[in-house]
Amino acid sequence: MKRRKLTQRLPGSRPASGRGAGREEARGAERGGTRRGGLGQRNRWAMGAGGCCYQFRVLLLGDAGVGKTALLRRYVEGSPGAAEPEAKSEPTVGVEFYSRALQLPAGPRVKLQLWDTAGQERFRCITRSFYRNVVGVLLVYDVTNRKSFEHIQDWHQEVLSTQGPKVIFLLVGHKSDLQSTRCVSNQEAEALAASLGMAFVETSARINCNVDLAFDTLTDAILQALQQGDIKLEEDCGGVRLIQRAQVPRSPSRKQQYPGPCQC
What spans are recorded as compositionally biased (Basic and acidic residues) (predicted)? Predict the structure, then answer.
């Protein structure tokens, strides 16, 4: 399964486009699988007349090695409840793109565009270019790496200086299964999250602990801010989009209908 690396893409540009990409996305949805790079997604839906959904663009930020890629892979590709052996992944180069579609309990359907960023300083000029076009940010640190926790405020301020106050943040303490080498307490992280005005979740991609909860918490917070008017739909903003689709006739002989190339 190939990874899609975006090292020089302009803000707001679409990673996959064209009829070929749309057909491939449709085939991936019908198979029920998930492919990286935005060409296939889990939890696809068929929408009726007047149906609509939101697209939220979300960024993961944090020092190199905190496990941002592992979190995303577990959320998008992993099997629920299954533990996985510890494995070292290659460092992200520039920015990589994932996506997942889901149905929220409150009713709206949401497509998440998930951007995995490199934590190394030499890629910072690339990752900064994506700040202006996101509505949500997961600030990730490693509970066994004190410096990654201390750098959270720097990541937070860097986004605010570029994006402004409209973005929704979530603090994520990763690798919570490594209790014997933990050096950041839960209480410390809760205090930091409260001081920065954001929620906090501890996760472990290896044992699949609270991974879905982290992304669901951020998604719910974005939707709530949107409904309350704290975040507004704007034509020139790629962080939030409202997507509408025409009615798709349902056939009793097929389990799923797909309306054609996705315009997300």
Answer: 21-33
